[in-house]
Specification:
With about 100 residues, this protein is mainly beta. It has helices at about 50-55, 65-70, and strands spanning about 1-10, 20, 25, 35-40, 55-60, 75-80, 85-90, 95-100.
Length: about 100
């Protein structure tokens, strides 16, 4: 597991945000931020859990997302919001954690 970014919810869309239509989420490119912050705006009809929409999350890349979520409290199940990217959100130690498998 490798640190990838911190996701920070915002209440207005920001310039340069990208849209994940299947999740109804706008987000910035964390790799373009010197502190690896991803700003996230959730559309009103976003289906994701409130614990994801209302709090900061920490994201990690994993080699095998199916193994990484085993036995965890799932906030959002494994999905593919874009080509070559699988994500899931878990809740661990009072924190929303995003797990990402790239490739």
């Amino acid at each position: 597991m490798t640190f990838h970014h911190v996701g920070y919810p915002v209440f207005e869309k920001m310039e340069g945000m990208m849209f994940a239509d299947s999740l109804k989420v706008w987000f910035t490119d964390a790799s373009a931020n010197p502190y690896k912050i991803e700003f996230v705006y959730f559309e009103p009809d976003c289906p994701m859990a409130a614990a994801i929409q209302d709090t900061v999350h920490v994201a990690y890349t994993v080699d095998n997302i199916e193994e990484a979520v085993k036995g965890k409290s799932i906030l959002w199940p494994i999905c593919e919001p874009g080509p070559g990217l699988k994500i899931a959100f878990i809740y661990d130690e009072g924190t929303a954690i995003e797990l990402m498998q790239v490739g």
